[in-house]
Batch of 4 targets.
Target 1
Amino acid sequence: MNAELPPSSYDGVADVYDLHWGTASFLWLRAFGLLVLPQIARGARILDLCCGTGRLAGELSRRGFTLVGLDGSREMLRHGRTNAPGVPLVEADARRFGMRPTFDVVLSTFDSLNHILTLGELQSAFRCVHDCLRPGGLFFFDLNTELGYLKHWNESSEIVGDDHTMKATALYDRRRRLGLFRATIEQRAGAQVEEVELRQRCHASGDVISALEAVGFTDTETFGLEQEAIVPDCLDSAERAFYLCRRPAATAGSFRPSTRRASKGG
Ligand SMILES: C[S@@+](CC[C@H](N)C(=O)[O-])C[C@H]1O[C@@H](n2cnc3c(N)ncnc32)[C@H](O)[C@@H]1O
């Protein structure tokens, strides 16, 4: 399996995504409201990692938070400029980005981190997140669970929009813990056809927690989405897992600026 999934994989699906799923991450706003909101100040600085078409970043920005969005897909970010006006949007790879430790919260929603296909790369994304948080800052994200894949990733679907049709199949390979989403998008006007293939990894919760701890996160809590309820410590019976952890208040950062300052007299 190629671990180097290009971060631009969503380019071909960006228009359809924004139209049909753009607001789906609002579902996780409730979890954010319950678990993160009580711990942060109004105006807190938030990085939306893998922000997609920027709907959630726009919504949080309208609620008075200071947002930055990061995504690997230029086309998803193009929608983000409309959906999240005034929010700085950065095109970068979640597995290897560097930002100064200025964020109070990093959040990542709607399976985004399942797109990182190996545990090593997930851990390197976690390290980047850790290093861009202020000491004491929070990291909140969701992942699809095995139950979620088994329930929702063995089906075909067809979406008919005003000017396009998308035929998609989602398959989950339980042995390899790998989800494969394939879509054909047909634009009616120009008869243009776009083929898109997206892959996701079902990361085991024990591995995720170990990877978080390995880069320095503490106080990890897990919550499961069961039907409509957000339940603590129940990942085996949940379709979606939420993780909340903290960069400790007192550790030194390992942030290394990418441009070196020339040393005098060296
Ligand atoms: C399912 S969408 C979720 C988007 C958004 N968070 C939401 O809730 O609507 C997954 C997003 O993750 C981004 N993504 C996947 N792998 C990435 C990577 N390695 N670096 C940056 N972005 C990535 C994709 O471009 C896509 O926008």
Note: Residues 255-266 have pLDDT under 50 and may be disordered.
Target 2
Amino acid sequence: MAGLETRRFLIVTGKGGVGKTTVCAAEALAIAHKGKRVLIAMCNAKERLSAMFGSDLVGTEPMPVAPNVWAVNMTPEVAMEEYGMMTLNSRALYTLLFDNKYVRAFFGAVPGMHEWAMLGKAWWHTTETLDNGAFKYDVVILDAPATGHGLDMLRVPKVILDVAPPGILRRDAEKAWTLFQDEKTCAVVLVTLPESMPTQETIELATSLRDELKLPIGKVVVNCVLPPLFSKAERQTLEDAGLGPNDEVKSKDDAAIQVGAARAARERVQAECLARLSKELPVSPSFLPQLFEDAARPEAIAKLAKRVG
Ligand SMILES: Nc1ncnc2c1ncn2[C@@H]1O[C@H](COP(=O)(O)OP(=O)(O)O)[C@@H](O)[C@H]1O
Ligand SMILES: [Mg+2]
């Protein structure tokens, strides 16, 4: 399968805290190194991307954060306003129609409207062009909400196609949905950890994406992978010693075996998770190492970018 840099739109999702934003940053750098212009679009995030790039805080306007990498932190309110302005082509008309609390409250109450405002805006950035006619961003990376909310967001264009009457909303949702469903133009990147719960959730998420939404899964990134110290037989020996993390130890030897057994258990779970992911997902997983330093720093992100490329 062709690399992610050939797609126009990447959707990065997974359980909360598994490293989605870190992966967005690392993938963006790797793609930028191949000479492409990349935009990272975050969904109303408590912004930590600026720490990862050592840039100014990222706000609601796209701004450069690294060579060939831009970022924006979308909010539903600003995204709605931009959309209103774009479709009405007039600030005066927009203000008249939208800029009052009743209309805002109305849109806030329509299910999916806030999600579509942000997803639609991220998609719209793929359509922007420069004066020379080239795309402003070759690749837009959506730092999507965590699992359940991410799925809810991705369901919205399909709902619009099912219920909205012909018009601008429907037209844009149709264009976006066509782009998202084509594996040549879009890829979902699933981020997970080599642990039981995230592995289970990732397999369920992949099933919903494939069967219900028919979105192309382009990559699975297993983050925070430990380099294995022990062979399978050595793991077994350590775990068979029967010194669990809460058992009392009476000698230095026992203490050493206990530490070894804890590491062996973690490596076993990791191996089991990787085997499960390889077996049950449509693409074989890629790995990012566990860094033993603050990963939200430019040096760390540069290291991870080398590993994703
Ligand atoms: N490979 C890694 N090694 C060490 N720390 C990591 C790694 N990946 C992510 N982290 C750290 O884990 C925390 C959560 O990562 P983040 O990308 O913000 O997750 P999410 O966006 O999924 O909530 C952050 O503090 C981040 O720096
Ligand atoms: Mg995040």
Note: Residues 252-280 form the longest helix (29 residues).
Target 3
Amino acid sequence: MEAVSRTAQWTAAARALETERDDRLFADPYARTVADGIGFELLERYAGAGTVPFLAIRTTYLDRAIGRAVEDQGIRQVVFLAAGMDTRFYRLGWPAGVTVYELDRPALLAAKADMLAGEPAPPGRERRTVAVDLTKDWTGPLKEAGWRSDETTLWVVEGLLFFLPEEAVRALITTLSAHSAPGSVLLGDVISRSALKNPLSRTFLKALEEDGNPWLFGTEEPEQLLTDCGWSPREVRQPGEEGADFGRWPYPVPAREMPRIPRSFLFTCNLSTGEEKAA
Ligand SMILES: C[S@@+](CC[C@H](N)C(=O)[O-])C[C@H]1O[C@@H](n2cnc3c(N)ncnc32)[C@H](O)[C@@H]1O
């Protein structure tokens, strides 16, 4: 497995810790299995910067937003970009007829298949894994797996964008809008550029770099990025703000006007109709 794919075991370890709390926000009963020992080692190595509470918040925010997209908006194609060790296919209650596509590097998907071998698919839903490099053309393999660009899609890009150079981030998000039917939704997270240089996270950032998966991309203006790439941001939240706190965020939330603050953003976007730009 590539170094960057190990980070999927790191985030799975954080989900295991949340699952094991009495006051858990969600239960991911597979997280400890897919995290394996390495996930917990990385949790220690990358400690600090509010990682564990942030990952609990991110998971909960996205779980709920995914639920709304499929229940209220009736979307039946769900694509997890850089799915990693995500087990939402198994652990969330999906409406009948949902197809979940999990895209990631081939070695990660193979390792995950081994770890979850024998886990029966819950009835009424389907899961298809697609081995890709998301910095290259990946829409062909997704189509071959059965995904249709003329039907609405829920795209989830969680824990990926900071690992990509800016051109690749913009190309990826633009590809999503270019291949989305009206009514499609994009969910995900991104960090601020200042988070790439936060002196308080120096040890954490250095460890990521030494391990071969440096953080490369951040923006102070996620709304602008998403709009530039064909999306209409419906909601952008920092952890600790209303709708992205869940009783887990231990720090004050800095106002958006304050410069040079390391931040994370969680976002929900609709496909742009073009009218927003004209307005
Ligand atoms: C931090 S993990 C996030 C996994 C999962 N979405 C989560 O939040 O737990 C980053 C994931 O990005 C994947 N990844 C990184 N670069 C990629 C690329 N170029 N193509 C496909 N997947 C990539 C890694 O394999 C890894 O699974």
Note: The mean pLDDT is 95.
Target 4
Amino acid sequence: MRIFLTGGAGYIGSHTLLEVLSQDHEVCVFDDYSNSTPESLRRVETLTNRKFKTVEGSVLDPQCLTQALQEFKPDAVIHFAGKKAVGESVEKPLMYYENNVVGTLNLLRAMEAANCERIIFSSSATVYGDPQFLPITEDHPLGATNPYGQTKLMAEHILRDWAQSRPTASAVILRYFNPLGAHESGRIGEDPNDIPNNLMPYVAQVAVGRRDRLRVWGNDYDTPDGTGVRDYIHVVDLAKAHAAALGFGETHQGCETINIGTGRGYSVLDVVGAFELAAGRAIPYDIKPRRSGDIATCYADPAKAKRLLGWRAEHDLADMCASTWKWQSQNPDGYDS
Ligand SMILES: NC(=O)c1ccc[n+]([C@@H]2O[C@H](COP(=O)([O-])OP(=O)(O)OC[C@H]3O[C@@H](n4cnc5c(N)ncnc54)[C@H](O)[C@@H]3O)[C@@H](O)[C@H]2O)c1
């Protein structure tokens, strides 16, 4: 198959790129490198010993996007390109709506011009808002509590309406829970440009001495140790879910929404403890007040992914920590190392 990956140089994109190349698909990566570097692509090329096409461009540039799609003529698109920091989305909502919503609209128009009707979209468990029951199934009520989540919800609506309007189109919306970890080689991993927003890259940067201490936001939640509980999913499992969704999309028509999680939750202190074991060093932390908008517990019901995609997570928290540590200790300054 010919696969067009927007945002393919980023964290999840680069791991998915590696996975689809190892399955012999032909790939074109389309990325503006606003939150990544071409170095991730060079490393994937070395790891897989496979060549692939790259186009530097933004999904906010319809002309460039249409030209790239018309030239590559993909069978399917995986759409990772977007902004993902919840806090930044509160400060810069218009930038988020533009990138994530207008970018998705531009992509669908460009796909129509290139006669491509299959898309896999990166959505997020944030679209569920405050959990009303657990585990979270795909029919859980929706209600994002921040602009980032709203952009994902809007993009989902657009994709659903688009798929409905075209009898042979397929849109597969994957709602990721909390991606963690790195490829087992330690050559690619998560490399935040700024202060990490997510727990694991922050923990990893404390472990290598780039940051002093971890801040744990609240230890008075109604959870076993008082800290927030999340469903962490290994990025390599997540990449394999995209490969499975590509196969599913070949015969699927319409729009399907699928949770990608493990079905089990770990607390912040579970993650800290597992990382200390993997790295063989202590992670100093301070307990801080709860952050507004944070929830106590969230984990997926992943049964639909098993049923429709034949996929389930295979890696556990220890694997996620060990691979993150390998990546971070071998690349203390990320791709600049
Ligand atoms: N990492 C998470 O915790 C998480 C959770 C749920 C959903 N998601 C979604 O998954 C997708 C990938 O996330 P990630 O963690 O790999 O993020 P990332 O920032 O590492 O990757 C996104 C990639 O898209 C590129 N990009 C951004 N805006 C672009 C634009 N306008 N045009 C072209 N390229 C652009 C960036 O340069 C980067 O390479 C995002 O859509 C994100 O919202 C991520």
Note: Residues 2-181+233-262+299-313 form a domain with the Rossmann fold fold (CATH 3.40.50.720).
